[in-house]
Write a structure and sequence with these properties.
The chain is an alpha+beta fold. Helices cover about 30% and strands about 30% of the residues. The protein has 2 domains: about 100 residues, no CATH class; about 60 residues, no CATH class. It contains 3 helices and 5 strands.
Length: about 180
């Protein structure tokens, strides 16, 4: 049976603004936070409210300000484990071929040379996977990204950057006209 499921975002509203570095525009920009309520749906019928999320968008390009950040390297552990598994299978094939004189994967019908070819193939694939992972690990962020990213000055909190109204409180600035919090830290 086909189940159509997923989530919807309902009741979006602007909740906050802040200065942020946009990795798409490559410049400091005003980021606008839109808060919405996430509902799970089944067959396009909203059933259960799950979370309240804030999505940040650049005011110039409309994208998420951190859209082009360098990826985390935690996935490399999984790639190295996969390459180690392939290498372990290759070593098992080599040992089984040397001990029995036959290809262990051919279930009694293979020759000894077939086992060596299979082991060499597994070792080659494991080597390629490990080499690509090391290459990706050594690759830094895009050239010049760190040098060009100047520190972003926080908003002052004197005026609303959206409508230009003066703020009454400087400790926790909030524009009542736009109904947004102005994040100054």
């Amino acid at each position: 049976m086909l189940l159509l499921h997923g989530h919807y975002k309902f009741f979006p509203r602007r909740a906050a603004v802040r200065n942020d570095w946009c990795t798409v525009c490559k410049a400091p920009r005003l980021a606008v936070g839109t808060r919405s309520l996430v509902f799970l749906h089944l067959f396009h019928i909203p059933l259960l409210p799950v979370a309240r999320v804030t999505d940040w968008n650049c005011s110039a390009c409309g994208n998420y300000p951190g859209a082009r950040l360098a990826t985390s390297r935690s996935w490399l552990r999984t790639v190295f484990l996969f390459a180690g598994f392939l290498a372990a299978v290759a070593i098992w094939i080599l040992i089984a071929t040397l001990v029995t004189g036959r290809d262990p994967l051919a279930q009694g019908h293979g020759r000894m040379s077939d086992g060596f070819v299979g082991a060499a193939t597994f070792l080659m694939v494991a080597g390629i996977v490990a080499w690509q992972a090391l290459r990706q690990r050594r690759r830094a962020e895009e050239p010049g990204a760190v040098e060009s990213k100047a520190p972003v000055a926080p908003l002052s909190g004197d005026t609303c950057p959206l409508c230009g109204d003066l703020m009454l409180t400087r400790s926790n600035p909030r524009c009542e006209r736009c109904r947004v919090d102005i994040l100054t830290d």
